[in-house]
Each structure stands twice: as C-alpha cells, then as structure tokens.
C-alpha cells in the first residue's frame, strides 16, 4: 500500500486523522517530536519540522502528505515558522512527487462575511495571525495553479474535541469544576464548531479522493450553528449542572492578557465572537453524501471521552 504521512501527528487532529487513515492504508508514518502509535503498524518518525532536511527525509517515499501542524499560539512563532515550514513542505512534496493535503482554518476570511462562510468567502485578513494564514495559503495556491504540485486545502471551523478546544478548556472544564463557563464578547451570537472526528474523516477522505485535489474544501460541520449560550447549556445538561456563564468583554481580555499570555494572543481574534460565525460545508456534504455530527452528539461523545 502507498505510504501516507502525517506532519504534526501529535496534535488533536493528527491523532484522529491517523485513526481514520487506517481505513485506507496500513502504511502510515507519524511525524512529530515525540510521535506515539495510534494504529498497530504505524511508523513512528521523530523529527524537528523546523529543520528542512528532516522535513525532506520525513516526506521521502510518501504518496500523500498531511500537513496538520499546530504551532504555539503566538504571532511571533507563526510569523517565524509557518512560511518556512510551508515552503519546505512544498519543495519536498515536489521533489518526491507526493500529494499534499493542508489542514487549514478560517483566519484569513474577511470578517464581514463570517455569517455564512463558504469556500468562496473573500480572503481579506484583518489580524496578524490571519495575515500569516493568508500568506501560506497563497504560497500553496500559487504552486497548485502553476501545475507544480498536486494539493488541496481542507479547511475547518474552530473545532470541538478533547484536546486544544476552546469549548473544552473554557466551558466543559470550568463547569466540571463548579465554575462559570467562559465565553467571549457576545454569548448570543451563533458559532459553528467542527467536531474533530468529522474533521479527521473528511481530511482522510479528501486525501484519498484523486479528483478532490486542486480545490478548497470546508470540512463537514453541522449546519445548525448554536449560540455561545446554547453550547454552554448543552455541556451543562450533559454534566447535570447549572449553565453558569461569564462573558469576557474585549477590554476585560486586554486586562487579563497582562497576566494570561494566551488571552493576549487571542484578543485580536475576538471579532469571531462578536458576530455570527456560521461555517457552511454543503459542498463537502453533497459531494460525499456526508451527514456531520450534531452538536448534541459531539458534546455527549466528548463528555464520555473526558
């Protein structure tokens, strides 16, 4: 079977993706600083992906490469590492004739169009992190359009899963401790979340569908975007607690950011919570006859897994 390689295999998406890829091949290479097996026959490939030589060796022999790296949530780190990594991965994929699947987010979209995001939503970043994402997407798009590289972009909304998820960190864990759930800006605005299992299934399916390449795909996400208040209520119901909620305003985040670095980094992205954020994956759902997991089912699965 053809080798399929995951760059950034240690994160939330990488682990779930490895599980899904097992349906397509038993020849899977997991690349990260400290990779751990997900499937019995996974090949573990420890590597520092900031080193172009190690990137090249990791990609050698691969038929499909999945770039699902999650760097530290720091604009300085993103500006320094993302363009370099994308360039190194592109060059190695071209050298070894590997197809590339890039797992992306929506940070580069025009903030005025978040109420119905499709693959055609205008790209006009209004944050520093969004500018970085737009830059690496353009690098990849240029290679695809020039015919130098076979690649696709699998784009996700904010995701809901057991690791690295705002919903788990700010809502589930707080409610579990008897505290108020936290939300940003306005808890009455709608906010889509892509269930990690659906994101992994969608990414694996796209990577193994030859005619899906050359395009941008929104990964499967339930069309019923709940409000922040409704998400908190779902988790509270699952935990059998009261849906206590505290909404953090932008000015409050600015003050807390002096003491909590992640909030300082997140402040520029808070616009995603002061308006409706609705992610449309109908292109994917129709093409693959896929029904995304409902918010209720996702919350239940996460509560059980935690």
From TrEMBL:
InterPro entries named among the record's database cross-references: Epimerase_deHydtase (IPR001509), Lipid_A_modif_metabolic_enz (IPR050177), NAD(P)-bd_dom_sf (IPR036291)
Superkingdom, natural source: Bacteria
SUPFAM superfamilies in the cross-refs: NAD(P)-binding Rossmann-fold domains (SSF51735)
Pfam families: Epimerase
Domain NAD-dependent epimerase/dehydratase: 6-212
Gene3D superfamilies according to UniProt: NAD(P)-binding Rossmann-like Domain
Native source organism of the sequence: Solitalea canadensis (strain ATCC 29591 / DSM 3403 / JCM 21819 / LMG 8368 / NBRC 15130 / NCIMB 12057 / USAM 9D)
Protein's name according to its UniProt entry: NAD dependent epimerase/dehydratase family protein
